[in-house]
Amino acid sequence: MSAKPMLQRLRDAANEVDFNRFRFWFQLVAFVLFVYGGYLAIDLGSKLPFFSCGYNQEGRAGVCYLLPLQHQLGRNWAVLFSIASLSILTGFLGFALWFIVLNKGWCGFVCPLGTLQDWISALRRRLGIRFSNYTHGQFAQLTKIKFVLLALLILIPLGVGGGFFSHDMSPPFCLICPARMILPIFTGDLSQFTIDFSSKTAVVMTALGISVTALFLVGSFVKKRFFCFFCPMSALHYLISKPALLKLKKDGSKCTRCGDCYAVCDMEIKEIADDVTTTNIMTDDCTLCLKCVASCPETGALKATFAGIPIFVSTEAGFIKRMNKGCQHGK
Amino acid sequence: MKIPNRPAALLLLLMLCGPLGAEPTEAQKAEWRARREAAGGEAPSEAQRAEWRARREAREASANAEGAKPAASAHEGHGQAAPAAAKSKKAPASAASGMAHDHAGAANRPATGVAVDKAPGKPEDAARASGRPAGMGGMAMRGGGGAVWLSDSPPARGDGAARGGMGGMGGMAMGGERSGPPSKRLWLRAGNDPQKSGFAREDAEAESQTLLVRPQGVLEGEVLPPPADGKKNLAFEMPVQGYYRVYASSRKLQGETLNVSVAKAEIANFSHGGDEEERAKALVAPRILESAPIEIVREKAADEKTFFQLKSGDEQAFVVLQKGLPVQGARVRFVSHEGWSKEAVSDEQGRVSFQIIRDYFPAWDDFKKRFKASYLIIAEANAAEKGVFKDQPYSTVRYQATLAGNYYPSPDDYRSYAWGLGIGLLIVLFCGTAVYLYRRRRLKPFQEVRFDER
Fold first, then answer.
1. Cα B292 to Cα B135: distance, rounded to the nearest angstrom
2. Residue B159 DSSP class
3. Looking at B114-204, which runs of residues are DSSP E strands?
4. Between B439 and B159, whose confidence is greater?
């Protein structure tokens, strides 16, 4: 038997990889990089397409784009509607360039808040507590929330800049984002766990922030990727995901609708199993975690491509290998 | 300082007049008498008058005695003031009239042969004796009384109001045309109290110069044109990110003493959307002017971020430099927004540190967490340096540097951990319990169905 070409062997190795382990280590490295990278003088700028929280002042290796975006939109209108706001466009361009590389894979593999949710889910699993699901009706309603939050994230700073809202509402999303409170804890900074009594607006916003954080902790414990469902960054990603290089593709002709992909999907995306006509199967809720590809037993039914090149394809051999190692279906 | 009552104020006024060395005119006496009577105060007794007279004579005698000491080694130490004076260019519009009333005393004090005169003869000695605030002892500076400093707000406007913008002298607001780069306006003010200081007045006898050092400009700075069109502010644009520094220096001869003052302002201009490489360069760029006869540099903490704000309760260090070299023994004074002050002496590194006090105590409904308070740093040092200024010889040089900045209320004043953690814990417990109970209710216990076979 002739030896397989090197490229084919590489492909086989990738397709048969112990995906859960690979993803765990990838996420861990990314978490350490973006939560502690600042101590190593790593600074990847302020246009990152995931929650590398700017409030983690000591350890951050870059800043989530939503923070500068809200600051820029909150400028006085005289400045906002001037040439000075060209920086908003250039900033967005920087964000888009980052995003275009991994698409929503930033959420599934890199986002520290997403990683935290996965770790909380792992803790629940170890404790033997079952997870929760939304009903289809709930899913259909809740999935819209992230777009509402994205709209508010843009409109409220504009209102602040126009003098309609208090400056204590700015930056509105960061004030209620759990990353603002949770990620600095990893560098020993508990300063965000406070209620600001300097004004009524500040009291409301900080209390809301703490409430959302508390809900995040409880929600993540019983529901996989609880917060990603409401994440406005995810909504923004989806709006500009067309030209992204990393894509999730489905060949409906090879799909048997076994439902394995749906069973492992943290986001409960039913289309991944039901839709056999769409090629580009990534939806607005998808985090591109690629667990669906890893759990698919049909060769070539699901695949992740980078710039059109398949980098991770579902194969029967890979499926069997992973099953033998104990794929955590439905947990 | 609060003056308790009007008679006391009159007494203070009389004491302030003491070092002038001249007897009040009859018109002045009549005016004081009238004011005293209007205030319901009593005329000072003969005993009080005698005591004041004795004090004044003692002061004058002390000053004369010091003035008679030989200035033997005046060239030791730095002794190089003349070249700097010669190099300076005249900026007539920013010249101002000074406090030319103290030359009989402190201004004539000779050097004692050390680089920085720490011996008797410190400028504030006379000031203390006269009851005036120290730090101003006879500097022939522009202004109507007090140190000359650069402020980001004019006197009438006052400080404290939270204004938009970022950066600046620890948070100074910035302006700018809509379509242009941000700009900055600074006012030259005179006085020891950040709130009460008025505009610095022009002094035709002083030689003045204002330099602007831009982040990517020449290290020596460029001459900033004086205010035009009747305006009183110095204005300049800040097209790139970084620290912009303005040095308003003045030289004036009083007796045999050359008074050299440098009022400095440092404005941080950074933006979130700005060029990151430009910002990184600006953060490591030098923040001193090696040609400055004296200057105060605010020491940046190692972990200080771009959008730094000084808060009440923070410890802030300053370094006093002359021609880029640290000055040991300089008397440095911190004056808070409400006029509280503290004095310290710089160490061998020229360093001095102050804790920013909390002096903002409004009614809670009026509390503003973005309340911008101003502080003022005044540094003074004497040096035995001989030279010639405007064809007049001098034997000592009195240096004065000022630096103003802003500070804000500490978050500890308005933030509560107890409430934050309490609310968080309550919601976690409530939601956790709710989820648990919800799940319990949805569990349907197995119920065996038995048919009744009878």
1. 20
2. S
3. 148-151, 175-176, 182-190, 198-199
4. B439
- How near does any CA of chain A get to the CA of B341, in Å? 27
Answer whether A45 sits within 8 Å of B178, measured CB to CB. no
Query: Are residues B196 and B143 in contact, defined by beta-carbon separation less than 8 angstroms?
Result: no
Q: Are A261 and A292 spatial neighbours (Cβ–Cβ below 8 Å)?
A: yes
Measured from the Cβ of residue B453, the count of other Cβ atoms closer than 10 Å reads 4
> How far apart are alpha carbons A294 and B172 in whole angstroms?
55
- B343-352, pLDDT tens digit by residue? 999 999 999 9
Chain A hits for B416, Cβ within 8 Å? 194-195, 197
Chain B nearest C-alpha distance from A43 (Å)? 10
Give the ipTM.
Answer: 0.86
Domains of chain A: 21-237 (no CATH), 245-324 (3.30.70)
A243-268 confidence digits (pLDDT tens): 999 999 999 999 999 999 999 999 99
pLDDT digits (tens, 9 = 90+) for B206-219: 899 999 999 888 88
Query: Taken in order A305, A309, A312, A317, is the CA torsion positive or negative?
Result: positive
CA-nearest residue to A204 within chain B is B420
**B428: number of CA atoms within 13 Å, CB side?**
14
User: Which positions ≥6 away from A126 have C-beta within 8 Å?
Assistant: none
Cα–Cα distance measured from residue B398 to residue B140, given in angstroms and rounded to the nearest whole number: 10
By DSSP bridging, strand B396-408 and strand B310-311 are parallel
Cα(A207)–Cα(A197) distance, integer angstroms: 10
Q: β-pairing, B207-213 with B396-408? A: unpaired
Q: What is d(CA A47, CA B273) in angstroms, rounded to the nearest whole number?
A: 9
**E strand spans, chain A:** 195-196, 246-250, 302-306, 309-313
Give the C-alpha separation, B170 to B265, whole Å.
10
Task: Give all strands of the β-sheet with A246-250 in edge-to-edge order.
Answer: A246-250, A302-306, A309-313
- Compute the distance between CA of residue B302 and CA of residue B448 in angstroms, rounded to an integer: 72
Chain A residues touching residue B274 (CB < 8 angstroms): 87
Strand partners, B400: B261, B380
Choose the closest CB to A193 out of B179, B368, B421. B421
Any alpha helices (H) in A127-247, and if so which ranges?
Answer: 136-142, 145-161, 172-176, 178-182, 200-222, 232-239
Strand partners, B389: B392
Q: B314 with B357: CB under 8 angstroms? A: no
